[in-house]
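Any chance you could type out some protein's one-letter sequence along with its backbone structure tokens so I can compare the two?
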Amino acid sequence: MDLDGYRVMGPARTVMDVARERGVAAGVVAADHALHHGLVDAGPLAAAFETCAGWPGRKAARITLLSADGAAESPLESLSRLRIAAQGLPAPRLQTEICDESGRFLGRCDFYWDEFGVVGEADGDLKYEPGRPAVVKERHRQKQFEETGLIVVRWGWSDVYSFEAVASRLRAAYARGYRRGSSERRWGTFAPAPGLHPQAPLARRIRGG
């Protein structure tokens, strides 16, 4: 396409080129961002991938296509999802809304494992600068989650490039949640609207599942 007299690539082709030339991590960050902000949808992204047949980096583009999820709200969340998968951990639900047993909304979490009662929070460094109201708000939200019996595991940018320690903490949290049993569950989640959620994982949307 042309823009102000210059030849430019559309969002879908740009995402695929980023993946091919810069690798899966960069590709997934770009794809998640484009999907989350409505710059591209499943169809055009899949079509852009098909144009890459025989080109260098097609494998990275394919992994990016199957891994992309528009529910991710930040590059840290996108990279965290890749690290979770690389560590062989169960896939989490993204951006899940949590309520208490009476149905009162408590907050939304970045990652959620319902089978273990575990919440994962990927926190950017700027979020916790001293004196910011976000610090008090986040601590209050975590306290509310934990009062229902949920286990909260947090990590930041300093953890994402060496994720083994976080993976160990997550596994320990899964074990605690599993042993605790369902009798102590005092939380719930809000069900998504009927039909396919617009931010469902791209692979699912492409496959029509």
